[in-house]
Amino acid sequence: MRTGDGASGSSASAGRAAAQGQPVYFLQHVPKTAGQTIRMHLRAHCPPGSFVEPTGRRDLPRGAEAIGRVQALCSHWLAQSMEQRFEGREIRRAVLLRDPVEQLVSLYNFRMSTYLDKGVGTYSFALHLRALPRNFSANFLLTRWLGHDSLSAALMPESRQFELVDAALRDFWFVGRHDDCDRLIAMVAPDLGIPGQAKAGNVMASHREFNAFPMLRASELDDGLLAYIRSRSPVDQALWEKWCLRREPAFAPAPRPVSARLGDFASFALASATRIGIRDFGRPGRIGQTRRMRLAVIAREKGQWAEAARHFRRAIGRKQGTPQLWIDLATALVNLDRYGEAVEAFDRALAIKPGMPSVIAWREQAARDAAAGQAAANYRS
After folding, report:
1. Which pTM was predicted?
2. Are residues 150 and 222 in the same domain?
3. What is d(CA 151, CA 146) in angstroms, rounded to the nearest whole number?
4. Which residues of the chain have pLDDT under 50?
């Protein structure tokens, strides 16, 4: 028992020594503010153990040695309380914000394209707006970063919401616009030992290649819809003006009685339940699809490719599926060196949606790998 304690103490000392002098970057990923570009760049280039993407408040490495290796965190689930695990180290917080109208439109496009990829149901932009809380970004930071529960955040006067989030942002090392993404990467790169420029790419561009969702643009919204979004986003608008446009916001929210705030929360909860119902049950034979996709993605993230392939096959089911599901299956098969099956899966994707340049290139590479594998097998025999 004493030996185990001594080893634990040694690991803790090693962890503290490794961490000494290293800042920790908390890169808060507010949805649709270019956070995915940052995450993919860090995921690709950071040394093992130095970059963490928590999926919950308690999802951090265990042990002082593992914590000592962490230099950057980026996800939707960063919480201020996580900083306690990095005692004695400089915390550098960063967040990107976006114009509320553009953000909510981009979020709708992303969700609907993703749902089409997964083979689940889609819904209208009007339902999308009703199923989001007022002041989407402020609410996100209040509940995820500052730890308020959803009800207390919703019932909070908007002047108080602004006060709390604004005060929190004053403690951030970097607050910028979503198009400051490249500048932020360049600033953190020297400490993290990664390239200072991310590979050019657009998440929505890849979705458009694989499905035919008609993209909505903020410029297409009529004045009434724009006014509706602005009326539901006064705190977000004020934060955007102050921190990104660098001007004093014209923010004087009218007091709203508790009954009105409760009504808003009830409407939001009902609309959220409606959207989830449409998403998960809106297509015949697709009940349980969200769970199948979640299991597939979890297995893929863990590198459990055989398990991922099994779940992607279940997600395709007896139906034709979607191009993205066949592409996901093919990717898993490639990682299992089952190139012939991967070629067949890529062919199924191209049969549904011909002419996808990326998929054609991946299919050709898989075919070359299959031929090389067959030639090697023939040589050995």
Report:
1. 0.81
2. yes
3. 14
4. 1-18
